[in-house]
């Protein structure tokens, strides 16, 4: 496509924002400028392109061929399972099916007679297979040493297609796990089609409520980094063992590594005196 | 269980129970289909609406959809019902009630007096007989005004929640979005952060930061960190400067249990906020979010349609005299509201039902990337809500929430709506915008390339402010 020189008349209509350089601090779409009170053409078109990419991420298929060998290398046993939702369209309309295992998967789980374990991990496509492709393995490489340091035993790992968060419950239950970790692709954002979510559940079994889980969100290089997320997970696992529960009963009181300061010194709007 | 029978053109239709009738009469949406309670055909839906129109409004007082003994939300609805306030419409059927609402009998004053006499089931029922224009017209008649550090909901006003979310709660990242919003004339409903974690220390830190910004720049608005009510109570105990206590709520006891709350806990949260006595203009200290589909998603819907359950959430809200309530209409996902058409209607239903019950309604005009919706759909809902007198919308840089991963309305969207419909910000905030040289009614943004003097220092001495060069 041929680039056209912007005309000076067109340029003059757009009021730019001098605070645009604060973009250094955030991926949020600040300082977009305005024409009258409205969005300039360039910002409008950039938005449309990002929306198109996020839509595409929702419909991308999980690359199980590439992921299975990676999981095999890191776990005593890796299972490839499928939810009861047949394809993406059914998955989007029927979340109930995404929470249940396919009959085939149920049979496969019933066939193995596992030793009780402390932790079962499920890697689930959710709404962004791309998040799993890019974040799941590096996060596991940060988290598995933490789990080992806590002296906890690992059960088999499950890679699940067309799954929702709660599918970790029947899997953890079948694997006789004391706690379950679900790594799942979060719904893609415009600026983050690659964001990984982690859901931690004490004593997984079918029928657990969302309030009985703890969530660590936005795990990706430009969000919460792998090491930070792994430390937070270790904290949750320690506290859940002491408490015998997860979810709202387990308050996150960890003094997480934070750039926040005490809130009275941290940023340019409130410079310290 | 009562059976509802109606004969149309020589054919007899039966609906076994009030809940079944309400579900069948509901305009089509994916959530009711998911629950297996939607009308089996378009004809059945239209006939159900006819049967519902004949039903006396008072039926809803005699026949609770969820038994009184089983559900504290039902108990709240019936125990709080005001028979005297109900009197003007007590003899009407649902269909006649629609006519009454559209007639000159219904105005701001009469609707305010009526609100304590209405139950969520009555307003949900009548909404099912209404077109979009009816929902807009009646919604606009309702007046609900709330106060904390400013006044929200006055006629001809449109406020915004400035939502400066950041995926790691980074202070400078949040501050950048706050500055962007303020300079685009946004933030009078609340400056409200969804934190990335429920960590109490983080919540306390964010509350201190917002308090510092609001007091340093003398902004007539309030702050909120949208965390679980139990975390908010803990933060207050730790001395955090808390304006509003937030909670997501739903329309059944079981769904609320799924959120880890009950009415007693909400009462405790409200009392904790009231104990700080921070609102100079008023004591509306609660902020609630709701959304169609939340009860079904918690498997706590009792076979009822999602729109009726949503209206029941507003009965929960009004018990606690909130400053702000908004439906997050397109957030919950396509399994409940599949596309732009369903989201638009639901947003208007929610606004209508909340306002009729006396709840200060705003709307998160939004969609996720797995829904069949786009910016054009949001523009339609936004414009219609402006016409309906919606109290507030969200304001976020460029419509993109980089923490919650969905699209909501932008600062620019609010400017558009104010320009097209002649709407103004909350009066106290409008005065602050004018005196700060940021925005003037009728003119729009009042500065060009030069920052208003109040904010010039933030980009000025980059050494001391730690700005990137």
Automatic annotation (TrEMBL), chain A:
Primary localization class, coarse: other
Keyword entries, A-Z: Bacterial microcompartment, Cobalamin, Cobalt, Lyase
Cofactor binding: number and manner: Binds between the large and small subunits.
Listed pathway(s): Amine and polyamine degradation; ethanolamine degradation
Catalytic reaction(s) noted: ethanolamine = acetaldehyde + NH4(+)
Annotated segments matching region Disordered: 254-273
TM segment ranges: none
EC id: 4.3.1.7
One GO MF term: cobalamin binding
Pfam families named among the record's database cross-references: EutC
Location in the cell: Bacterial microcompartment
Any GO BP: ethanolamine catabolic process
Entry-linked InterPro entries: EutC (IPR009246), EutC_C (IPR042251), EutC_N (IPR042255)
Example of a GO cellular component annotation carried by this entry: ethanolamine degradation polyhedral organelle
Presence of the UniProt keyword Transport in the record: no
Complex and partners: The basic unit is a heterodimer which dimerizes to form tetramers. The heterotetramers trimerize; 6 large subunits form a core ring with 6 small subunits projecting outwards.
Task of the protein: Catalyzes the deamination of various vicinal amino-alcohols to oxo compounds. Allows this organism to utilize ethanolamine as the sole source of nitrogen and carbon in the presence of external vitamin B12.
Family that this chain belongs to: Belongs to the EutC family.
PANTHER family for this protein: ETHANOLAMINE AMMONIA-LYASE LIGHT CHAIN (PTHR39330), ETHANOLAMINE AMMONIA-LYASE SMALL SUBUNIT (PTHR39330:SF1)
Name of the protein in question: Ethanolamine ammonia-lyase small subunit
Natural source organism: Salinicola corii
Automatic annotation (TrEMBL), chain B:
Required cofactor(s): adenosylcob(III)alamin
Record-stated family: Belongs to the EutB family.
InterPro entries: Aldolase_TIM, EutB, EutB_dom_2_sf, EutB_N_sf
Gene designation per UniProt: eutB
Domain of life: Bacteria
Compartment list: Bacterial microcompartment
Function: Catalyzes the deamination of various vicinal amino-alcohols to oxo compounds. Allows this organism to utilize ethanolamine as the sole source of nitrogen and carbon in the presence of vitamin B12.
Species this chain originates from: Salinicola corii
Cell cycle listed as a keyword: no
One Gene Ontology term, aspect cellular component: cytosol
Main location, first listed in the record: other
UniProt KW Cell membrane keyword: no
GO terms, molecular function: cobalamin binding; ethanolamine ammonia-lyase activity
A UniProt-annotated Pfam family: EutB
Biological process (GO), any one: ethanolamine catabolic process
Species classification: Bacteria, Pseudomonadati, Pseudomonadota, Gammaproteobacteria, Oceanospirillales
UniProt name for this protein: Ethanolamine ammonia-lyase large subunit
Amino acids binding substrate: 161-163, 194, 289, 364
Catalytic activity from the UniProt record: ethanolamine = acetaldehyde + NH4(+)
Pathway the protein takes part in: Amine and polyamine degradation; ethanolamine degradation
The protein's Enzyme Commission number: 4.3.1.7
Quaternary structure annotation from Swiss-Prot or TrEMBL: The basic unit is a heterodimer which dimerizes to form tetramers. The heterotetramers trimerize; 6 large subunits form a core ring with 6 small subunits projecting outwards.
Key words of the record: Bacterial microcompartment, Cobalamin, Cobalt, Lyase
